[in-house]
Amino acid sequence: MSSLRVCYQTIEFGDVDIHVRTLRDNQEFEDSEGAAAKLGISSASWPLFGIVWDSGKVLAHHMFDYEIGDKRILELGCGIGLASLVLNHRDADITATDYHPEAGKFLEENVRLNEGEDIPFVRTGWADEDKDLGLFDLIIGSDVLYEREHVELLSEFIELHAQPHCEVVIVDPGRGHHAPFSKKMVRLGYSHSQAKPDHCHYLPQPFSGQILHYQR
Question: 105 — phi, psi (to 5°)?
Answer without folding.
Answer: -65, -40
